[in-house]
Specification:
Length: 140
């Protein structure tokens, strides 16, 4: 049996979960970029120039909603809680009144709610920062 890694590169003899009875012609395990190394395609070994595998970075998913408690605590932690009322008051009517109702009476805050989308830029938050704020809030 011949083992290969998550990316198909030959790693040597063995009977692990990623192994095949098909033997590669090239038994090199060189990790020098560009050096020829056997790569298993799922059906056959192919000699390819070695490329250092790059694992994808896991990003915690953005919660669709958080509780109002979580939202307020996250905003407090980010130093933005006091700015929310100012941001709401800066909105034109009828958006201002709708935002006040949302802020004062909602039990949850939905990430893709128009209220959230309107307030984020006024608070100086980018979409990425808003996503991070939701992730942080979900942990509270």
């Amino acid at each position: 049996m011949h083992e290969f890694d998550l990316f198909g590169w030959y790693v040597g003899p063995g009977a692990g979960p990623r192994s095949t009875p098909i033997a590669p012609l090239n038994l090199s395990t060189a990790d020098t970029p560009g050096a020829l190394r056997a790569n298993f395609t799922g059906h056959a070994w192919v000699d390819l120039p070695y490329v250092v595998p790059v694992l994808p970075v896991y990003t915690e998913p953005v919660p669709a909603s958080i509780t109002m408690r979580q939202a307020r605590l996250a905003l407090l932690g980010a130093g933005l809680l006091a700015s929310v009322s100012t941001a709401i008051n800066a909105l034109p009517e009828p958006l201002k009144s709708a935002a006040q109702i949302e802020w004062e009476y909602s039990n949850e805050v939905r990430r893709h709610n128009g209220f959230v989308e309107q307030l984020a830029p006024v608070l100086g938050l980018t979409n990425a920062q808003l996503d991070d704020l939701f992730r942080a809030a979900a942990q509270l």
